[in-house]
TrEMBL record:
UniProt-recorded name of the protein: DUF2970 domain-containing protein
TM stretches of this protein: 20-42, 54-73
Domain of life: Bacteria
Keywords: Membrane, Transmembrane, Transmembrane helix
Matches recorded under Pfam families: DUF2970
InterPro entries in the cross-refs: DUF2970
Disordered: region residues: 1-21
Amino acid sequence: MNKPESENSSPNTGNADKDSGLAAAAASAAAAMFGVQSSKAHQRDFQKASPGKLIFMGAVMVCVFVTCVLFAVRCSLEQAGMAGN
């Protein structure tokens, strides 16, 4: 009548795979980039997420950040009339 523990835990295994997707890696990279990630989330990420996904999303986040900074500087220089073009 009672199911063994291995059968009861199988639906949770699906959630663990779902949590380690690119969206979770993006959220983890963003939290780490701004320094607001808890130690619990940090441990969870390194136990469940693949290093490749975390490295990829970290690189994407850095590229987006640098692009935003360059865009902001270029817009500021244009507003000040100091654009190099």
